[in-house]
Please model this.
Amino acid sequence: MSPLSENPITTILIPKSKTNLDDVTNWRPIALSNTIYKIYTKVLAGRLQDWATRFSALSPCQKGFTPFDGVLEHNFVLQTRLETARARKQDLCVAWLDVTNAFGALPHQLIYKALTAAGTGEDFVNIIRDLYTGCTTNILSNDSATNPISISSGVKQGCPISGLLFNISIDHILRKIQGTATSHRVSE
Model:
């Protein structure tokens, strides 16, 4: 067990917009951890990113939480597809998915299974399991903090490795949708 497994986490809530602040869904939880934990998980994230790049562990269609700006590529692909469909007077179907609470809803067991299936190795999976097992947080407000709350699902927003863990966890879904296509399409 890592000395960081008992890392105390404090969660602050950041508004997503300036409207409807009474609605809890309009607040984004950000996990604040101590400096040693952040350095440790930053090193783990770097190693995991290097490994994922070297072994092509992520679908090339994944652009979030990667070291390059993939949003530009996705915007370019979408714009090109729209222009081509207009020029050829063809129909085009575009799906835009926004999964509610995607970071917070991810089961921890899915993270471990996805890391194992991707081939990260048992030692690395155990390190990640150690970071999440028994993890609690206190939600900090202007007035006080809550009693400890168990974190039983989700990745920690604000943690350096969370984005990459999320990517690896959803990668099998993206690859199923993509199939054997080499471009940004599901089918012709």
Remarks:
- The chain has a mean pLDDT of 86.
